[in-house]
Amino acid sequence: IPYTLIENDTVIFAQNMELFMWDITKKNEKKELYQYNPKKANAITRIKKLFASPFQPHFYMVQVEEDGKYNFVIKKKENYLTFPVVVKNYEAMDSCFVSDTIFAVLVNQNQIDFCTAVQKDTPKLKTIKLMLPMERIFSYKNHVILIATTVLIAKFNFERCVIQGQYEFDDEMIIKQVVKGGEYLALASRNKIVIIDADFNKVCDVTEKFSVKSLFWESDNLLFYTTANHWKYVLMNGETGILKCIEEPLHLVKKIANYKYLAFSEKNKIFEVECRKFDELDFKMALLEKDWGNVHRLIKEMPRKGKALIGYLIDKDYSSIALEMIDDKR
Q: Which candidate, 285, 262, 148, places its Cα nearest to that of 214?
């Protein structure tokens, strides 16, 4: 089910051709039938994707699938159920926001059109053609977008019309999600997560048996992600772990308290979910960030200093810290 977070206070999600809005503060839901005129009378249509603009909080994009082809339209959040269309439908492969007034449309695998997002019509600002078999485009920074093929992801500067850097995948990947956190980018295909830094160097990667459902940056150095049956984490050294078993796939939307999150799922729609505190994860994070004061504090507070954790410290070349956890120093 498509969904997006708007202005940090509203979740918009879709079922078939209906749009639903959930006010996080008021905890109420409203809906409207999305007004879309199919090109064919008997065409099968559904809302395939929703995503908010990272530059202009009022705007969001609706991707409608009609008989296997995609159409994009920008809408504006205004008084909940009033959705004035800002631009006309644009048939293409993919789309993303470039700035607060510009959006990009992947017309085909070799062409991107850049258009204004603030007028009723869609005046084209620029067209660029690249000798790359492009599959997806994503918002990144102001006037910079990400271009993904099955073998690489690249930064493209709209104003200069140049590629400013790229990362080549170890194996072919069809990128489905890109989430920015601090100086890192998390890229997810169906069964793999790759984390790269601001210079587009690989930091680490994770391969999953089950499909990756969502990515969520808990902090600059800690990524949460969900699969069909687990809520997991990955550290910037590539270590992963299970935080919680889940009954159905869920998407983490927003952190609302220390260990409480707003989540979205097909069955329960918008709901709150908790993840208990993990001393072991805090300990690993402190080690990774070389926060030695916090490391020693956590050692003292640990009720049980098991052999597994001591073995972990020795394996990671923290023998001196492991020695602190052993009563019999001999």
A: 262
